[in-house]
């Protein structure tokens, strides 16, 4: 295995994906007959593949194949297909081997983000496999934060908002980042809002927005620590910063 340098899960998680994230806006009608819409963010599979190969040229993806069945669920001898057909629907399965570790993920073939496809075409199968690759890659850390708000209720009338506890946790984290970067708290918040394009009040954030802001704050903290490490010893060694609910020290590659 030829890898320039092992990249830790934490570093992969904190990669800036701003220019590689795509937004899929879905429209639907709720149970009361009212038109609604919601958006999902996902990582471009081509960007994921590029970053994976840059770090580990020998990294690979396996698209699992399964026996093919006819409409009466009778197996066709000697034929395999890149999806699993079941009475409940169609699924794809992908394994990503990266930096010597394999992660596997399943994904149902759906439309409009949640409705099973009864007879998927080749485009839907291929698209699902690409998304399954991205999801398996996320288990290694790259783009994982995008799945923070993935689970959706049966009837989506509005995005699920974060809890009061999460609002307090975010406020506490941002205060730590402000201290680490020697930045006024209000200026820090304005900077984050400008760069993430999220203007929602913190007590009204949905889970996707919450994950995006946490990821951005984490990257700011990591950058501040690297700058601190680069200073000569006489200017002071990196300090561990603690709060009552979490501890952030030097990030390790182990």
From TrEMBL:
It comes from the Bacteria. Residues 226-254 are annotated as: Disordered. This is DUF1071 domain-containing protein. Residues 226-243 have a biased composition (Basic and acidic residues). Residues 22-160 form the SSAP RNA binding domain. InterPro entries: DSRM_SSAP (IPR009425).
């Amino acid at each position: 295995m030829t890898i320039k340098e092992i990249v830790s899960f934490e570093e992969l998680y904190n990669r800036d994906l701003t220019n590689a994230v795509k937004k899929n806006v879905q429209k639907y009608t709720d149970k009361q007959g009212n038109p609604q819409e919601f958006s999902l963010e996902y990582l471009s599979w081509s960007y994921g593949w590029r970053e994976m190969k840059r770090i580990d040229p020998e990294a690979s993806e396996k698209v699992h194949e399964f026996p093919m069945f006819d409409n009466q669920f009778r197996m066709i001898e000697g034929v395999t297909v890149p999806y699993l057909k079941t009475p409940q629907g169609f699924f794809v399965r992908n394994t990503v081997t990266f930096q010597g570790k394999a992660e596997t993920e399943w994904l149902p073939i759906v439309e409009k983000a949640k409705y099973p496809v009864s007879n998927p075409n080749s485009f839907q199968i291929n698209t699902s496999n690409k998304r399954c690759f991205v999801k398996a890659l996320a288990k290694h850390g790259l783009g994982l934060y995008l799945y923070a708000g993935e689970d959706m209720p049966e009837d989506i009338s509005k995005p699920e908002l974060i809890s009061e506890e999460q609002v307090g946790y975010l406020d506490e984290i941002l205060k730590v980042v402000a201290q680490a970067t020697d930045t006024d708290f209000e200026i820090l918040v304005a900077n984050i809002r400008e760069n993430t394009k999220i203007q929602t009040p913190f007590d009204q954030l949905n889970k996707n927005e919450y994950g995006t802001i946490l990821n951005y704050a984490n990257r700011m903290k990591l950058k501040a620590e690297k700058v601190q490490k680069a200073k000569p010893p006489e200017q002071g060694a990196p300090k561990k910063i603690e709060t009552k609910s979490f501890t952030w020290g030097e990030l390790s590659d182990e």
